[in-house]
Amino acid sequence: MTINTNPEDIQTLLSRGVEKIYPSAELLAKELATGRRLRIYAGFDPSGNSLHIGHAVQINKLAQFQALGHEVIFLIGDFTGMIGDPTDKKATRKQLTREEVLANASSYQAQASSYLDFTGANKVETKYNSEWQDQLNFADLIRLSANFTVGQMMVRDMFRVRVEEDKPIYLHEFLYPLAQAYDSVMLDVDVEVGGNDQMFNMMCGRDLMKVLKGKEKFVVTMKLLADENGVKMGKTDGNAVFLNAEPKEMFGQIMSWPDSFIAPSFEICTKRPLAEVLEIKEKLASGANPMEYKLELAKELVTTFHSAEAATEAREYFRATVQERGIPTDIKEVSGATVLESAVNYFGSSKSKADIKRLVEQGAVSVNDTKVTSFDTPVKAGDQVQMGKRDWFRIM
To answer: Structural domains in the chain?
Structure first.
């Protein structure tokens, strides 16, 4: 297998969409320049029945390593998925059964193939971490856990917050970083890729590799898509764009993103040459109309996960149903089980429940273009609600 050691390509690999590299980007660049074929992985717990665009950021980086000739492993955490990663969680995750995680993971490889090549001479290998995690006994667990302290685990923000709020922390949540760390050891990797919110878990793997293998493991943390308030895109916050979404739905969801998402998304989610990405950033910074580039981004991502034909149809549908009718493209997403509940969440203190009920009685409220006659009308995720002439929102 020929390894690409071109300095410019290595620099792009280590900078595009990357938040930080441990122990340093310089050391990893030197390792890549030797021409040695490195072993790279990223893990994905099947906590839902689809990957989302947030996951695509890490998968895209794996694809860039693969393009340079390196060995890439796409790890499905069917064991760790049953534990539940406590990262950024203010409460304990619901634990899943083996059957549930395997059912969730059934389409993961197919979705990842939008970026990764699972065939050919340098094909990506899919692995399941139950292969080695299931083999551990209690003595093994004691031996492995002896490499970490409770103090190390308590430095994590979400654990500190739970202690301050007098919320429970369960022992299995402390064990999750250890389980992820053990994946690195059993895969004997050189590099792990993950979102910057996974830094703690990945660094635990780096520590365990040094102890058990006497080997350096590089950690590459990726930037996350987040709004102006720092809320990241993902399942937890209800703003994820799932890769199994229908093309029209995916296109509309991307068009509802804030303008601040446009340039970062071209950088970390697409296969565009970096020079083109930088040009888009410059034009947006110079006052170019963001709508043009958001349409371009939505079409490109729908093409990536579906097809060019589906993207064209989704673009036309968006034009006919949203643009020509004057629906705002940055439509707000809110939660709620009924028209009234979701409208209260949308308006906040600016409208009372009586005002909202009055709009319904006046026939000024519709869900997916169908007029509603009761404020108790149920709504579901993806429904688009119009309140009067100027207010629109989508159910989260």
So the answer is: 7-222 (3.40.50.620), 247-323 (1.10.240.10), 332-395 (3.10.290.10)
